[in-house]
Amino acid sequence: MQAEARKRLIFALDVESRVAAEEWVRRLRGKVGIFKVGKQLFTRCGPDVVRMVQDHDGEVFLDLKFHDIPNTVAKAAVEACRLGVRMFNVHALGGRAMMTEAAQAVRECHAAGEGASPLLLGVTILTSADDQALREVGIDRPVAEMVPRLAALASSSGLDGVVASPREVGLIRHACGSDFTIVTPGVRPCFAESNDQQRIMTPAQAIEAGSDFLVVGRPIAAAADPVVAAQLIVEEMAAALAKD
Ligand SMILES: O=C(O)c1cc(=O)[nH]c(=O)n1[C@@H]1O[C@H](COP(=O)(O)O)[C@@H](O)[C@H]1O
To answer: Residues 4, 88, 140, CA angle at the centre, nearest 5°?
Structure first.
């Protein structure tokens, strides 16, 4: 069960240089399933950092949260496919046309033999946001209504899954069914700080709720012993998976 749990743990490489990223990959290779390359690292290092992870036999979640006009996002999606990443994301708030064109671009790129077939995920409502934050940008509906609504829109636009807080997994499963992939950041083991995350759950709670993949950054990176922290999270996930 630990091997299955490990495959589902994604470590966020939220660091400022290729050297630091490579150190983390060497340290956590075999201890986590996937490495997430996000905006900070990608802006600093570009696509080479994705290749660096792959050169270490690591799989990559490219977390650039594309949100633009449909044509631009579709073309960025093709580049993500060409990089051979395991998964990448767009903002579901970008809407149906944007998501549909991105999904089509992924299918065509793969069919033409130009790239891999990554999971295309829609970010619903960021795990750092709450109802008050939504009201401030003019969204009067609560998070608990917006997340399943955006997940259903992502699903009907041809996306493979969503990124959301583990707190909303049940609502998403109800709206989108069991085959839809749910990736959850906002995961905090009991030994870690919540930082800027608002809608959090423990690794066990996230797995019990039905998350497919857990994204964890600072609870591992800031731990006194990151390898031990990753292993504790894997053990907690494995115990929750064993209850199924
Ligand atoms: O798409 C994401 O990965 C993401 C979506 C979201 O709603 N919330 C969220 O925290 N993330 C990412 O997940 C990671 C969480 O990191 P920690 O809060 O350090 O565990 C960060 O790299 C975020 O960019």
So the answer is: 105
Has 65 been annotated as catalytic?
A: yes
Kindly state the average pLDDT of the residues 33-37. 98
Average pLDDT on 207-232 reads: 98
CATH value at residue 191? 3.20.20.70
Which residues, listed in sequence order, are joined to residue 89 by a DSSP beta bridge? 121
Q: Given pLDDT bands bounded at 50, 70 and 90, which one contains residue 116?
A: confident
- pLDDT of 244 > 80? The answer is no
Here the tokens at position 206 are 């996230």
Q: Percentage of residues in the chain with pLDDT exceeding 70?
A: 100
Please identify which of the residues 7, 68, 130, 131 carries the catalytic annotation.
68
**How far is the CA of 133 from the CAs of 37, 54, 126, 140, 149, in angstroms?**
26, 37, 10, 10, 18
* pLDDT average, residue stretch 150-174: 98
Catalytic hit among 48, 55, 63, 75 = 63
Q: Which residues have any ligand 1 atom within 6 Å of their CB?
A: 12, 14, 38, 63, 65, 89, 123, 126-127, 163, 185-186, 195, 197, 215-219
Parent domain of 207: 2-242
What spacing in Å lies between the alpha carbon of 64 and ligand 1's midpoint?
A: 11
Q: Count structural domains, the chain.
A: 1
243 belongs to the catalytic site: no
